TrEMBL record:
Residues 30-328, 344-638 form the GP-PDE domain. InterPro entries: GP_PDE_dom, PLC-like_Pdiesterase_TIM-brl. Keywords: Glycerol metabolism, Glycoprotein, Hydrolase, Signal. Residues 693-716 have a biased composition (Low complexity). Residues 693-719 are annotated as: Disordered. This is glycerophosphodiester phosphodiesterase.
Amino acid sequence: MIKSLLFLSLLIHATFAQNGSWQTLDGNEPIVIARGGMSGLFPESSQFAYEVATQSPVETLTLWCDLQLTKDGVGFCQSDIRLDNSTNIATVFPNNENTYIVNGQKVRGWFAVDITSDKLKEVTLSQNIYSRPAEFDGMLPIVTVEDAAGLRPPGLWVNVQYDTFYNQRNASPAGYLKNVMRTVGINYISSPEVAFLTFMNGQVNKARTKLIFRFLDANEIEPTTRKTYSELLKDLANIKTFASGILVPKEYIWPVGANQYLEAPTTLVSDAHKLGLLVYSSGFANDMPASYNYSYDPTNEYLQFIDNSQFSIDGLLTDFPTTAANAIVCFAHNQKPAPVKGKPLVISHNGASGDYPGCTDLAYEKAVTDGADVIDCSVQLSKDGVAFCSGSADLSGNTNAKTSFMSRASTIPEIQQNNGVFSFELTWTEIQTLKPQILSAFQEVGLQRNPANKNAGKLMTLADFLQLTKIKAVQGVLINIENAAYLATKGLSISEAVSSALSNATLDKQQIFIQSDDTSVLSNFKNVPSYTRVLLIKEKISSAPKQAAEEIKKYADAVSISRSSLVVAPKSYILSYTSVVKDMHAANISVFVSVLKNEFLSLAFDYYADPMAELATLTSEGVDGLVTEFPYTATAYMRSSCSDFKNNSTYLIPPVEANSLIDVAPAEAQPPAEAPAPALDAADVVDPPLPSVAASDADAASATDPAAKAPTPSKSGVHQTNAAHVGLSLVTIVLLIMLAL
Ligand SMILES: *[C@@H]1O[C@H](CO)[C@@H](O)[C@H](O)[C@H]1NC(C)=O
Ligand SMILES: *[C@@H]1O[C@H](CO)[C@@H](O)[C@H](O)[C@H]1NC(C)=O
Ligand SMILES: *[C@@H]1O[C@H](CO)[C@@H](O)[C@H](O)[C@H]1NC(C)=O
Ligand SMILES: *[C@@H]1O[C@H](CO)[C@@H](O)[C@H](O)[C@H]1NC(C)=O
Ligand SMILES: *[C@@H]1O[C@H](CO)[C@@H](O)[C@H](O)[C@H]1NC(C)=O
Ligand SMILES: *[C@@H]1O[C@H](CO)[C@@H](O)[C@H](O)[C@H]1NC(C)=O
Ligand SMILES: *[C@@H]1O[C@H](CO)[C@@H](O)[C@H](O)[C@H]1NC(C)=O
């Protein structure tokens, strides 16, 4: 029944430990404690969760088992004292519901003390956190302490959360542990109960088994001393008399304010270390956003606790042990400046728009500081022809235009279905009065981005943007051009605006990428061979047959595709990778993939809520550019030794193998096959030539006349380029000069 978990065979147990250089108590690297195994992916404390966790790049991987005891005294691992949320016990034994007083609280549910180990074997585990995959429910049995030890993890940690409760029911966790330790090595025993640890202190061999006092929320009452945990925290020396270390919620170390931003750290770690107490911290999970300071990258959070220049805790208790292990092996102490050559380019998307409102000066400056190789500007035009950067022509998402200029809203089906406030309906002076707004794809489910900077920064003209990239000496600049045909009907030539700005800016050190979804626009830039032309393919495709790719090659050196054109992941499980990268490479076309976001909701389950796993996978698929709203995360990955696929002697963050995760679920839980996306059709590649630019602004009013809107195709791209010059004055002249260069 239980399939093997071969899919993670790429993960190797290795000796990548860097002992000595850590600010932990003993100078060794911090340990990774897997709470119920890889419980972020599989039902907590199941065989799958434990097996996957042990496939770790750290030598210290420690499996965490929350001890519960059955009626006949068998110990097994489950975190909640009630079993009804994480198993199907309520359906298998409907009559076993009971009410007990647990630490002074009345609790109703299904309890282990009411069922024998024999009967418990009929029960299967299920996911008890609703945002995590449920496809592995109903197939895995409960795991005993001996089963967990049988997986031979480097370390085993048993937590006894309810000693008082079990003793009141005539069950003895201490007796059970003494017995089981005759055959099973337990490296750590923790408990939030003082009396239990004081008793165990005389029972265990401390060279083999460390006793750890677990702190609960500050105001909760410790059941055996009747003191609050915050009172107990004031006397760490007393804790040292019966424990080797402490386990604290992460907020004890890095408090988070009501606004969800980190405050200054407490002195707890150094206080405890001075007393010789080890410090472990709990509450880490990639899919539970902790503080805005981490920009939704869980690696940032782990590093905050182990690599912050002031201290390192001695271990992390997490539901996603692989990410924590990678933080230790790949990212800590890793300040190497330059990415290794030949790796994919990191290309910003509207600047660092995960941290600041997109396309503002602050978003661009952050993208530069973050080390992005290429900084992007999606060019829009104001009514009076000023070129500026904005993620879309509709300003109602990324600014407050909807409130300031509601009366100017319109619906333009050539651009988008929804009603919007479009840049070319406002003058640049009007646009400058707008307040930029940070955008999040997951706002409606409560995942805001950096609210402190919600309206920070200002929009930039294309000229100012280019000036910024020049001053900061960035390696590359990507200019994205859309809606050229429609703008021409409004008397605006966006290609010319871009050409003139580029020629005026004289970026002689930067690589220039001109990106458009329109081959006619790319044709306009053919005359400047140093420009890299990028065709934006918005449609989801599954392959690019030779003929189509060769057609593209006539217009572009690279394509930008969406993630879904490369990674086929219906229902958030990766089923396959398309041939698009291979097909494009066969035609000597580079492939950029967009848009990467850190939020776990944008990641397939296979990536275990870790954006680094996606970066590793896309890199291994051979993409040439990673277009991201969080360039810091991508450059951190690139700087790391764990992304160097050319180096055989280094640990690599493993790319995800297609179909490997969902394949272990029962057939009935697997998503039904979907029709594949179409292949790219050669006939769809080439766009019609751009219409000639409408005569003058004075006629702008007549643009509401449908006849005026209709594009007027001209005979050829070349002719069109020339035709477009008629009717524009200053800009035209600058462009002509540039084209003559
Ligand atoms: C690092 O320290 C741990 C704990 O003391 C030890 O088990 C491990 O062998 C050490 N690794 C190396 C490479 O020295
Ligand atoms: C089950 O989980 C839900 C949601 O997390 C929680 O509200 C409820 O109290 C839990 N019930 C039990 C019996 O654990
Ligand atoms: C977290 O972010 C806030 C807002 O940007 C900042 O004021 C604070 O200093 C940051 N905290 C840490 C510990 O970096
Ligand atoms: C040309 O560039 C300069 C800065 O080098 C800038 O001040 C000026 O506004 C630019 N002119 C145009 C037409 O973009
Ligand atoms: C591939 O295209 C690049 C420009 O994008 C060119 O420099 C190179 O010579 C081409 N290589 C082949 C084999 O066609
Ligand atoms: C890395 O491994 C591959 C295949 O095993 C081998 O062909 C290559 O020579 C190795 N490279 C180095 C630098 O050892
Ligand atoms: C390969 O990786 C090892 C271990 O991370 C590192 O010491 C070595 O410098 C790397 N070699 C190259 C050529 O980057």
